[in-house]
Amino acid sequence: SAGYASPSPPPQPPPEQDLPNIVFLVVESTDGRTWTPGYSNDVIPMPNIRELQRSGVEFRRHYSNAPVCCPSRATFWSGRHASEIPHEHDGIRVGGAWNNYEGLPLNFTDRIDQVLSRVTNYNVKVSGKTDWVTGGHSENVYLNAWSMYARFPYSVNQSGGWYTEVPADSCGSSGHVKQGGGAKTGSAHAGDWHTADNTTAWIKEIVKLNPERPFFVFQGWRSILGPWGELLAPVTGMDIVHPPYATNQFYNSTIDRSKVEVPAWQPLMEMHPCDFQSSMLKGCTPSDLDAPGFYDNHRRREIRALYYAMIAEFDTMVGEYIRAVKQAGVWDNTVFIVTSDHGDMQMEKQQFYKMVPYDASASVPMVIFDGRNPLQNGRVITDTTQLIDIFPTVMELAGVNDTLLPPKLGGHSLVPMMSSQPDRARISQRPDFVVSQFHGDDIGMSWFLVVQTTNVSTYKMIVWGSGEQVPALLFDLQTDPNEEKNLIDTAEGMEAHKGLVQMLDRNLRSVVDYPTVAQSVAQYNWNSLHKWIARTPGWKDEIHKSSLRWSKSWDQDVNGSFTALNQFLESPPGIQACRLNLTWTTN
Q1: CA-to-CA distance for 108 and 104, rounded, in angstroms?
Q2: Are 100 and 70 a contacting pair, CB within 8 Å?
Q3: Mind listing the pLDDT tens digit for each residue in 326-354?
Q4: Is the pTM of this model over 0.90?
Q5: Interior angle at CA 86, CA 508 and CA 390, nearest 5
Q6: DSSP character at residue 260
């Protein structure tokens, strides 16, 4: 199908023209609100991002289309929604980029970098974390995702429940501060600096070698590091701001703890069932024995402080790119696009990590600075935008003719919002809503969200499964930015917002037929686990071996766990509601 390898000859590149250089930086795990001036009392020093914001465009309602590493990258590198990336994997037809094991197929040919290399004269360099392809990540990831609807036994009070992330490495950890260090030296993220140094050196070198030829350079953040940032393997990506939360003394000292706000937590049994399941699966529901230390406010404040310190260090890395472009003499002809793949809950709603539909996880920051057209005092965009908008934006900046664009693009160019005189006519053609979804690990059910700006406010609706198993949520993001008051949790609230809910549901379904997709994912999970069992000798030992993160959960009740798994495998594949129970036993 279109977008996949074919024998047809590539189209000829367009004529050479005056085009900008493009620097595309994608950090890890950064909550979309954290770059907003005033966030948490301006606790995070970020002079370099502020420099870009002062003369660029800041997007404050910007969303990941699938807030987990591989699915997110698969969407924005292809410009497609996760449910528009069908492929074959291990002999199974997969409907989309459902989890960290399912991304773009190996024969996909329409990523941003591929299109630029094929139809333009850009010098293209991709460095750091890519993580967009099917078949990546660990056994933990796909076994966790495929068994989403297995009803494993657990007891929160006795053992912290059924968790698929090791508590000591996740919610139960207080983070790490490496002693000593400076702005670039002694970093807890040495691999990040290694890649940044190499890539900024490439910028300066390529401008010398080909001063007339524009460049597109990308850096993603992730590397294989030891506990103090030492490289354990050749650099293939970067890690900042991804958990576990780690920094050095230099950046730790930049965060004023008196400015760090500690989010309030609901009692477990007052949570939405799917929030409870995600908190438990992420290792964030401690046993009675571990509860006093876990719930300590000081510990939670420190975790958030370390998270902010990592953002401050990333800002310094952005500064290295700014400096390199200026030193190369091309500042006035370079566009910076700086964003994140997804957010991080950073202890909100008793969670860390991403994967869930709340703004801390699903929204991402973004700033675009165009050196050809610096904006006096910058511009703030509060219209809803999304990561898949980046694909058509880059194509328009690079002068790619619409006839050469790949099919199934789900986003819209942001260029009309970037000029000194915004193109109102083109902006008005954009949908006033965005959609996101996820179907993988550390969640209790497939979920879907739609965020829409009206003439009254900006609303978010979250739907799980087919919409029938557990209650949906509706938030007014302007008056309730922490998403604490569900506007439709009563019959009266549902009646008062009936028209709004119908509109949001209609718009969500216009992008993704979520009841059908949710059932398709359930079928895929069931098929995949059956096939894995058939091809894995000794699978009963393999599935709960000690190196897997959920092994301790299995070991709490091995017989009950296998009973639950067998019940799942022997039943027709279907969507199961999230459970809101402190204890669950198998029949």
Answers
A1: 6
A2: yes
A3: 999 999 999 999 999 999 999 999 999 99
A4: yes
A5: 60
A6: P
